[in-house]
C-alpha cells in the first residue's frame, strides 16, 4: 500500500510503498482510509521541530506515516474490541486513549497512561498517530485503543464534514471555547483565522456571545470568518487590534476595556502576546496554537486583571457532544 512518510529530517517526506499494517494488540483495529487530511501540527513534524518524532522516523528505516485525522472503514478488529465491527465507518480521533487509566478517568485523555511509553509530540502524550506510530495518511491505518478512540459515523452526513471531528472541531471547542469560558453575551476575540480559528468561531457561536472579533493578516480569511459568524474583522497588519476594539466594539457599556476571551489560534509568540494585550478584567487567554518557541508573559500588566491563561492538548472529550451538534445541521 502507499503511505506518505516523514523520514526524520526537515522537509523530507515521501509517498512510498510500505507494508499494510497488522493487528498487533487486541485493542487495535485496521481501517481502510476513506478520507484524511493535513493538520497544522503535521507541518511542525515536517519542519523537524519535534525531536521525538525525528527519532522515531529515523529509527523505522522508512519513516513514519504522517497524519492523525481520518475517517476509515473498519476492516479487521482485535479480539478485545467491543464497540465497532468490520464494515463500520468510523472517525479516528487524533487522541488515542484507553478510557480507564488514572488520567483518562479524570478527563485528561490527552495524557492517557497507556500511551506513556510512546514518544509522540512529547514523551507520553496521547497524540501518537502520525508521530510515535504510523498515522492516517496511508491507504490503511492501525488504530490503537479503538474502543475509546474511534466514533461511529452517523448515516447521511458527508464524510468530509465528519472528518472535522478527528481534531479541528474538538481542539478549537475544548481549548478555545470551553477553556476560554465563552458565555452568552460575552466578547470574544479569535486571533488567527486559519481552519482552527474558523472552527473556534463556529464553536463560540454555539454559546451566543455578543461579539466575536476575528483577527488575521489575510483579508480572504477574514471574509470567511464573517460568513461563519464573526461580527467584526480586523486585519492586524493594517490596524492596531486593541485600538480597533476599544473604538468600535461595545458590550453594553460605553467603553470596552478589553475582551472577555482571547483565543490564540496560531501558536506564535506574537499572537499570544497580542491576546495578552486584548483581554480585560476577569478575561481569559485561551491558547489553542501549538508553540515551538517561548513567548513573553507580560505579567506586570496582567497580574492585576484577575486573568486566566489556559492551554493544553485536546482531550477529545467533547467529540460526542460535537457529533450531536453536527447531526442537527443535516
Ligand atoms: Zn490535527
Ligand atoms: Zn488512558
From TrEMBL:
This is DEBR0S6_06590g1_1. Residues 195-325 form the Alcohol dehydrogenase-like C-terminal domain. It comes from the Eukaryota. Residues 27-152 form the Alcohol dehydrogenase-like N-terminal domain. Its cofactor is Zn(2+). PANTHER family: NADP-DEPENDENT ISOPROPANOL DEHYDROGENASE, ZINC-TYPE ALCOHOL DEHYDROGENASE-LIKE. Keywords: Metal-binding, Zinc.
Amino acid at each position: 500500500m502507499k503511505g506518505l512518510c516523514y523520514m526524520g529530517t526537515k522537509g523530507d517526506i515521501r509517498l512510498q510503498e510500505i507494508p499494510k499494517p497488522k493487528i498487533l494488540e487486541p485493542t487495535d483495529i485496521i481501517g481502510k482510509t476513506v478520507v484524511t487530511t493535513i493538520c497544522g501540527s503535521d507541518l511542525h513534524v515536517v519542519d523537524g521541530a519535534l525531536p521525538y518524532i525525528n527519532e522515531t522516523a529515523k529509527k523505522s528505516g522508512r519513516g513514519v506515516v504522517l497524519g492523525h485525522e481520518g475517517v476509515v472503514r473498519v476492516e479487521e478488529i482485535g479480539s478485545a474490541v467491543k464497540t465497532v465491527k468490520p464494515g463500520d465507518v468510523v472517525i479516528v480521533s487524533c487522541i488515542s486513549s484507553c478510557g480507564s487509566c488514572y488520567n483518562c478517568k479524570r478527563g485528561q485523555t490527552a495524557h492517557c497512561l497507556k500511551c506513556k511509553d510512546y514518544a509522540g509530540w512529547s514523551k507520553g502524550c496521547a497524540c501518537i498517530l502520525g508521530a510515535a506510530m504510523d498515522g492516517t495518511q496511508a491507504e490503511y491505518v492501525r488504530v490503537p485503543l479503538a474502543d475509546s478512540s474511534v466514533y461511529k459515523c452517523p448515516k447521511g452526513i458527508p464524510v468530509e464534514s465528519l472528518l472535522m471531528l478527528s481534531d479541528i472541531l474538538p481542539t478549537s471547542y475544548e481549548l478555545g471555547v470551553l477553556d476560554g469560558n465563552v458565555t452568552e453575551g460575552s466578547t470574544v476575540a479569535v486571533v488567527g483565522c486559519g481552519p482552527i480559528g474558523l472552527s473556534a468561531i463556529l464553536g463560540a457561536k454555539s454559546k451566543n456571545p455578543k461579539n466575536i472579533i476575528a483577527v488575521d493578516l489575510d483579508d480572504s480569511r477574514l471574509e470567511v470568518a464573517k460568513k461563519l459568524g464573526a461580527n467584526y474583522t480586523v486585519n492586524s497588519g493594517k490596524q492596531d487590534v486593541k485600538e480597533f476594539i476599544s473604538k468600535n466594539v461595545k458590550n453594553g457599556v460605553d467603553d470596552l476595556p478589553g475582551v472577555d476571551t482571547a483565543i490564540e489560534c496560531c501558536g506564535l509568540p506574537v499572537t499570544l502576546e497580542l491576546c495578552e494585550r486584548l483581554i480585560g478584567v476577569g478575561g481569559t487567554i485561551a491558547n489553542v496554537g501549538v508553540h515551538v518557541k517561548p513567548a513573553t508573559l507580560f505579567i506586570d500588566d496582567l497580574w492585576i486583571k484577575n486573568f486566566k491563561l489556559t492551554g493544553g492538548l485536546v482531550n477529545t472529550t467533547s467529540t460526542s457532544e460535537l457529533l450531536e451538534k453536527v447531526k442537527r445541521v443535516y
